[in-house]
Amino acid sequence: MLRKMMLLVSLLILFLFPVSYVHGEAPSYAKWGKIAIEQTTKKYPDQQITDYRYDGKVFISNVREQYDFEFTLKQNDQSREIRVYVLVNPQNDELIDVKYDEIEEFQ
């Protein structure tokens, strides 16, 4: 009896609160964020990326855009923040360069 009751309650919940799946596209910066992570890992191999934030895109010219990210790096229980700038050519969707700005020393 208890088993039938639990099955009935479960089915009732499924019908009253249907599960919906939303298939959205990845954000436009996702590709460049992945590259920023890969390049930062290469540049700072002894440090772990513990936080990642997208700070927006800057239009520079028809052939140059900049995606801005802020990372928190951790090493030996100390952390610091850096900015990563991914420069791309929007005409051919190719990477131009990756630049770094160390905004905070280890604390």
Please state how the strands of the largest beta sheet are arranged side by side: 1-2-3-4
Mean pLDDT: 84
Distance between the termini: 61 Å
From the 3D structure, determine the CATH topology.
Answer: Nuclear Transport Factor 2, Chain: A
Query: Proportion of β residues?
Result: 35-45%
Question: Which CATH architecture would you pick?
Answer: Roll
CATH class: Alpha Beta
Rg is 22 Å
Contiguous uncertain segments of 5+ residues: none
Quick overview:
With 107 residues, the protein is of the alpha+beta class. It has helices at residues 2-16, 30-43, and strands at residues 48-61, 64-75, 78-89, 94-102. It has a 4-stranded antiparallel beta sheet, with helices on one face.
Question: What does this 3D model show about the protein?
Answer:
The protein has 107 residues and is an alpha+beta fold. It has a single domain, classed as Nuclear Transport Factor 2, Chain: A. 27% of the residues lie in helices and 44% in strands. The chain has 2 helices and 4 strands; from the N terminus they run H-H-E-E-E-E. A 4-stranded antiparallel beta sheet has the order 1-2-3-4, with helices on one face. The longest helix has 15 residues. The termini are far apart.
Name some characteristics of this structure.
4 strands; 107 residues; alpha+beta; Nuclear Transport Factor 2, Chain: A; four-stranded antiparallel β-sheet
